[in-house]
Amino acid sequence: MENSPVTTNPALADQRNDPSFENIWQELQWRGLVHNSTDEAALEEALAGEPLTYYCGFDPTASSLHLGHLVQLLTMRRFQLAGHRPLALVGGSTGLIGDPRQSGERVLNTPEVVRGWAESLRRQIEHYIAFDGENPATMVNNLDWTEGISALEFLRDIGKYFRVGSMIKRDIVAKRLESEEGLSYTEFSYQILQGYDYLELFRRYGCTFQFGGSDQWGNITSGTELVRRVENVRAHALGTPLVTNADGTKFGKSEGNAIWLDSELCSPYTFYQFWLNTADADVVERLKVFTFRTREQIEDLAREVEQRPFAREAQRQLAWDVTSLVHGEEVTEKVIAASQALFGRGDITEIDEPTLRGAATELSVAEAVPGETTPVDLLVASGLVTSKSEARRTVTDGGAYINNITVDDGEAPVSDHAWLHGRYLVLRRGKRNLAMAVAQLTS
């Protein structure tokens, strides 16, 4: 996995760290990306000195990365822009085990599934960091150094450096040990595997710095301790905060579903709307973490939020920046045009089918039979009104629209040619109440 292709994402060429900061460490602190670390002064000095090699790991526990991973990918890029050399680790072996969860044992996926997911993650990671230039990234897979080692070798050569007393004190381990489910030795051993990664990357690449989410801090420091014990070398570590909303809720979840970076799992339309709907209380912090806008630019947008919150300029800039980075500017422009057209400010027939399909996931949807279903039926079935009598009044008052065209006759079946891409109708009541009808597919 080391021979990774050159990254072709054009957005990388425009990315810069903010020159108003003395060094990358100061910028990370301002952006709120420092939660915990090994010796802070020593790490800041190391990052301000000669280029160092660092790594961040991504376990293939699903087929796609999500917004939590995006924090780490952008942090990797910030360090790379500061002149340091990244190692992007895909956990082909740790993905077979899985780190302990807050509750319940992980389902162990087959090696074939994990291998496919690892390849999918590798392709995604290549989009966010550069694999060419003066300090190119390198892709690594920890299966390369664990697959051939025997259990006896692992226990003798690596396990002897770990103390059980320290391992069971780590928060997640302690919680699981006290739970009814308990903790299997399989998941308990995860921190040893991750510590071994750091040691191998030090030996192979001279890696002396690892970072990840603060929930991984125990696993991360298992590596710094192993490098110190075995090689007598100071290894550095950083834990970035878990991003939460101002109300304390977990960030990046919508009704229990992650906001994935894969457009097949989360449409660009849904992705853009997620950022556009960011609360005023959260948008400035999101700009700091998820964009490369400078301190001056973000402070200007912060004043916009304070003085003209109704304009939602900060949200629109945030949504543009992150969606363009993940899905490209062309797709983002289509999504914005579609958003406007859905509310009558553009040609709705120009919206492509994938974008309409994505919009359908954000709206109330009614299934319908082309040639049979009437506008009155659709208004009720979609939830835009509560009864047929209310639907008829809405039509009479001129407040019902199908594909942005005013409905004149609420009882006549919608003609076949009105269905966008043969399957969709955009329904609207008044100016802002949207829904969608989707044609039932016949077998």
UniProtKB/TrEMBL annotation:
Q: Which PROSITE patterns match?
A: S4
Q: What is its main location?
A: cytoplasm
Going by the record, the broad EC class of this enzyme is ligase
- Taxonomic superkingdom: Bacteria
Residues annotated to bind ATP: 253
Q: Where in this chain does the record put each RNA-binding S4 domain?
A: 374-435
UniProt-recorded Gene Ontology molecular function terms: tyrosine-tRNA ligase activity
- Positions with a binding annotation for L-tyrosine: 55, 190, 194
Does ATP-binding count among this protein's keywords? Answer: yes
Q: Which reaction does it catalyse?
A: tRNA(Tyr) + L-tyrosine + ATP = L-tyrosyl-tRNA(Tyr) + AMP + diphosphate + H(+)
The sequence motif named 'HIGH' region is recorded at 60-69
* Keywords, in A-Z order: Aminoacyl-tRNA synthetase, ATP-binding, Cytoplasm, Ligase, Nucleotide-binding, Protein biosynthesis, RNA-binding
Membrane-spanning ranges: none
**EC number per UniProt:** 6.1.1.1
Q: Which InterPro entries match?
A: aa-tRNA-synth_Ic, Rossmann-like_a/b/a_fold, S4_RNA-bd, S4_RNA-bd_sf, SYY-like_C, Tyr-tRNA-ligase, Tyr-tRNA-ligase_bac-type, Tyr-tRNA-ligase_bac_1
Q: Where in the cell is it found?
A: Cytoplasm
Position of sequence motif 'KMSKS' region:
250-254
Q: Which Pfam families match?
A: SYY_C-terminal (PF22421), tRNA-synt_1b (PF00579)
Q: How does it assemble?
A: Homodimer.
Q: Which family does it belong to?
A: Belongs to the class-I aminoacyl-tRNA synthetase family. TyrS type 1 subfamily.
Q: Which PANTHER family match?
A: TYROSINE--TRNA LIGASE, MITOCHONDRIAL, TYROSYL-TRNA SYNTHETASE
HAMAP family named among the record's database cross-references: Tyr_tRNA_synth_type1
Role noted for this protein: Catalyzes the attachment of tyrosine to tRNA(Tyr) in a two-step reaction: tyrosine is first activated by ATP to form Tyr-AMP and then transferred to the acceptor end of tRNA(Tyr).
Q: What is this protein called?
A: Tyrosine--tRNA ligase
Its source organism is Nesterenkonia aerolata
